[in-house]
Amino acid sequence: MQFKQEFLDKLKNAKKLVFFTGAGISAESGIATFRGKDGIWNKMKPEELASFDAFMKNPDLVWQWYQHRREIVHNTKPNAGHIAIAELEKFYDVTVVTQNIDNLHRRAGSTKIFELHGNIERNFCVDCKTFYYLNDLENTESVPHCKKCGGLIRPDVVWFGEFLPQDQFSGGEKAAEWSDLCFVVGTSAVVYPAAYIPMSAKRAGAYLVEINIEPTELSTNTDYSVFGKSGEILPHILEFIKQQK
C-alpha cells in the first residue's frame, strides 16, 4: 500500500498519536453501525430504547435490549485495526479517544483510552451511582437492583439527551491538542460534541489523517485521507513503522 510521502515523514518524526474512532472500526468486527444502511437505528426508534425516560418507563425492556447487544459484543473479537492501534504503543505515546461502547480497544491491548459514550460492559445505580460489572450481578434476566440502596441499575452508556462524561471528553480533547498526528478512524465525525476533538487537534497544529471507507464531511478539513478498511490500512502503517525502527 502506497502512502503520501508527507504523511510518512510526519509519522517518522511523531511522538504522540491520537486515534479518534467510531462505529466503522467496530463494523469490521461485525458490530452493526448506528446510522449505516444496516444500522441499529433503522430497526429501532432510539427514543424508545436509548433515553433515561425510556428506561424509567420500561426498565426491563431497555435492560434486555442492552443484554442482547452485550451478547453480540461478547461474541465479537477485536480486528486487525484495533490490534494495530494497540501495537503502535510500542513505538509511540498512543491515546485512543473512542465513540464506541464495545470495549474492543481495551480487549485488543490499548492502555490509554477515553470512552466518550461509555462502556456497555459497565453499569451503575441510577440513585447512588455505584458501579457494577455483569459478574457482580446475580440476576441479569431483568433489570437488577443495587445491593446498597435498591435503586435500578442501568448500562453505563450515554443516552440521548445526556451529557458526555466530562473527564473523558476533556481528557480526550487534551490528548488531541498535544498530539503530533490525529487519526480519525471509521467515523463521519458529525456527532457533536465528540466531533470537536479532531478539529481541536488540527487547530492545535496536529496533522489530521482520516481513515474511512468513503469520504465524509470531515474530508475537506483533513491533511490526508485514506479510503478503505481500517483493518487493512492500519496494519500497513504499523508495518512501515516497524521497518523504520
Structure description:
With 245 residues, the protein is of the alpha/beta class. The protein has 2 domains: 152 residues, Rossmann fold; 79 residues, SIR2/SIRT2 'Small Domain' (2-Layer Sandwich), CATH 3.30.1600.10. Helices cover 36% and strands 19% of the residues. It contains 10 helices and 9 strands. Strands 3-2-1-7-8-9 form a 6-stranded parallel sheet, sandwiched between helices. A 3-stranded antiparallel sheet has the order 5-4-6, covered by helices on one side. Strand 4 and strand 5 form a beta hairpin. It is elongated. The two termini are 19 Å apart.
Largest sheet: 6 strands, parallel
The gross shape turns out to be elongated
The appropriate CATH architecture of the largest domain is: 3-Layer(aba) Sandwich
Distance between the termini: 19 Å
How many distinct folded domains? 2
Share of residues in helices: 25-40%
Give the low-confidence spans: none
Might you state the CATH topology name of the largest domain? Answer: Rossmann fold
Q: What is the CATH homologous superfamily assignment of the largest domain? A: TPP-binding domain
Q: Please list the strands of the largest sheet in the order they lie side by side.
A: 3-2-1-7-8-9
Amount of beta strand: 15-25%
Class derived from helix and strand content:
alpha/beta
Number of E-type strands: 9
Tell me the series of helices and strands, N- to C-terminal. HEHHHHHEHEEEEHEHEEH
Oligomer designation: single chain
Whole-number average pLDDT?
Answer: 92
CATH class of the largest domain: Alpha Beta
Cα-atom radius of gyration: 19 Å
